[in-house]
Specification:
The structure is a single chain. The chain has 14 helices and nine strands. By secondary structure, the chain is of the alpha/beta class. It folds into two domains: 257 residues, Ribonuclease H-like superfamily/Ribonuclease H (Nucleotidyltransferase, domain 5, 2-Layer Sandwich), CATH 3.30.420; 111 residues, no CATH class. The strands form three sheets. Strands 3-2-1-4-5 form a five-stranded mixed sheet, sandwiched between helices. A two-stranded antiparallel sheet has the order 6-7. Strand 8 and strand 9 form a beta hairpin. The protein starts with a strand and ends in a 19-residue tail after the last strand.
C-alpha cells in the first residue's frame, strides 16, 4: 500500500535518431501525502546529485512513482544509471508506477471524449491533446508556456545549479543565430506549423527572464502533481492504469531500440504497393473520383456517401468543422454535401465498392508518400515508431505505422478460397 506519491519530471538533452534516452540534465519533484493530500515544496536537483534520490524512491514500497509520460523519464534514468533497470521493472510489477497522461486518456475514454468531442453548446468539434501544458489547464490554474527553454536543457548539463541563471543568459545569446535560421526556414515554408512553433518558442525564450530556465523545469513537477491530485477524484475510472503503464513502458523500450529494415524487402513492398495503387487509381479515374494526376475530386464521393447513407438509413459521417445550426440556417459551406467525412474508417464502414476503393487509395497514397519513405530510412538508421493508446484499448503506431501495413479495403470472399 503506497502512502506517498512522488510526482517528478526530468529535463534532458534533445532526442535524436538512435538516441531516444538522452542524458539527464536535472530532475524536479514534489511529494503528495496520500492520506491528507498535503504537498511538499517543489524541488530541483542537478543530475549529478540525483542518483540517490531516484534510487530511494524506486526502492520504497510506500512510494507511488508519478510522471507525465513517465516511461520516457524512467528510460533516461536507466540509460544514465543502468543498475536501476531491475528496480524500475520491480516498481512496475508492484503497481507503483503510474502516468498522468495515460490516466487522462482513460478518463476521456470513459467520458466519450478521447482526443476530442463535439461541443454540446456550439456543436463544434473540440480537439483534445495530452501534452503536459494542455492537460494541466483542465485540472489546475497553473499555466505552462511552450517556449524554447524545454529544448535547451542540453546546454545546462555541465553547469552547476548555482550558475544556471548566468548560463541562461549565455544560452539566450547562443540561440539568436538559431532563431535567424528558423526564420529563414519559415520564410521558405510559411505554412509549416513546426517552424512557426520553433520561431515563436525561440523568440519567447530569448526575450524571457533568465531565471525561467529554473522555474520552467520546476513547473513541470508542480503541474504533474496538480493533475494527479485532481485525477484522484475520478479513481473509479482508473482501474487499468497500472497495467496500461506497464504496456507503455514495454512499447517505449521497443520504440527507443527501434526497427531496422532490409532494402530488398522494402523495395519489393514499394513495388507491390505501387502496382495496387495504379490499379485502384485507374478504377477511380474511370468513375471521375480521381484525376489523371492522382489528385482527388471529393465532390462525387461526398455525394455518393450522403446518398448511400440516406438509402441505408445511416447517419452521414461529418468532419469536425460540421455545424448543424449553420446547416439548418442554410449557410454556405454547410449544405447536405458539405463537411462529409471521407476518412478511411468512414468509407469502409459502409457497403460500397467505390468508397472502399477510395479508402484504399487514401491508404496507399499515404504509404507511398510517408510510410515507405520512413521505412527505407531503417536501412541505415533505427526507426522509432510512436506507440499510443487507441480508444478501444488497443495500441496504435505512427511515424511510421508498423502495426497495420495493408488493410484490404477491397476484398472478395473468393480470395480466401
Amino acid at each position: 500500500m503506497t502512502t506517498t506519491a512522488w510526482c517528478w519530471d526530468s529535463e534532458t538533452a534533445l532526442i535524436e535518431v538512435g538516441w531516444q534516452a538522452p542524458p539527464i540534465v536535472c530532475i524536479t519533484e514534489q511529494y503528495v501525502d496520500a492520506s491528507t493530500g498535503a504537498t511538499t515544496v517543489p524541488a530541483l536537483h542537478h543530475w549529478t546529485t540525483s542518483r540517490e534520490l531516484v534510487g530511494d524512491n524506486l526502492l520504497s514500497p510506500q512510494t507511488l512513482i508519478v510522471g507525465h509520460n513517465v516511461a520516457y523519464d524512467l528510460r533516461v534514468v536507466c540509460a544514465q544509471w543502468p543498475e536501476f533497470l531491475p528496480l524500475v521493472v520491480n516498481a512496475y510489477e508492484q503497481d507503483r508506477v503510474t502516468d498522468t497522461m495515460l490516466r487522462q486518456k482513460l478518463l476521456d475514454i470513459a467520458a466519450g471524449k478521447y482526443r476530442g468531442y463535439r461541443d454540446p453548446v456550439t456543436s463544434k468539434w473540440r480537439k483534445v491533446t495530452y501534452e503536459l501544458s494542455d492537460v494541466v489547464t483542465r485540472h489546475s490554474p497553473l499555466a505552462l508556456t511552450k517556449d524554447a527553454w524545454r529544448l535547451s536543457y542540453g546546454w545546462f548539463r555541465d553547469t552547476p545549479l548555482e550558475r544556471w541563471t548566468e548560463r541562461a543568459i549565455e544560452v539566450q545569446a547562443l540561440s539568436v543565430p538559431l532563431l535567424e535560421q528558423a526564420r529563414a526556414a519559415l520564410a521558405l515554408e510559411p505554412k509549416k506549423r513546426m517552424l512557426k512553433d520553433r520561431v515563436a518558442g525561440l523568440e519567447a525564450m530569448i526575450a524571457d527572464d533568465p531565471t525561467r530556465c529554473i522555474t520552467y523545469a520546476v513547473d513541470d513537477a508542480r503541474a504533474t502533481c496538480d493533475i494527479f491530485i485532481s485525477q484522484e477524484k475520478h479513481a473509479k475510472f482508473l482501474e487499468d492504469e497500472f497495467r496500461l503503464a506497464r504496456r507503455m513502458w514495454a512499447l517505449g523500450l521497443m520504440s527507443a531500440w527501434g526497427l531496422r529494415t532490409d532494402e530488398v524487402g522494402v523495395r519489393l513492398l514499394e513495388a507491390e504497393t505501387r502496382q495496387e495503387y495504379e490499379e485502384i487509381k485507374a478504377f477511380l479515374t474511370d468513375i471521375g473520383w480521381v484525376r489523371p494526376n492522382g489528385t482527388r475530386d471529393t465532390k462525387l464521393p461526398k455525394k455518393a456517401m450522403v446518398e448511400l447513407c440516406k438509402r441505408e438509413g445511416l447517419r452521414v459521417p461529418r468532419t469536425p468543422s460540421w455545424d448543424v445550426k449553420k446547416h439548418l440556417a442554410g449557410e454556405k459551406g454547410f449544405g447536405e454535401y458539405d463537411c462529409v467525412s471521407l476518412t478511411s474508417d468512414s468509407c469502409v464502414a459502409v457497403d460500397d465498392e467505390a468508397l472502399h476503393a477510395y479508402a484504399m487509395f487514401s491508404t496507399l497514397t499515404k504509404m507511398l508518400s510517408n510510410d515507405i519513405k520512413a521505412v527505407l530510412q531503417g536501412i541505415h538508421y533505427p526507426i522509432h515508431s510512436r506507440f499510443d493508446l487507441a480508444e478501444t484499448g488497443r495500441t496504435t503506431s505512427s511515424k511510421p505505422n508498423v502495426q497495420n501495413w495493408r488493410r484490404a479495403a477491397l476484398h472478395d470472399d473468393e480470395d480466401d478460397e
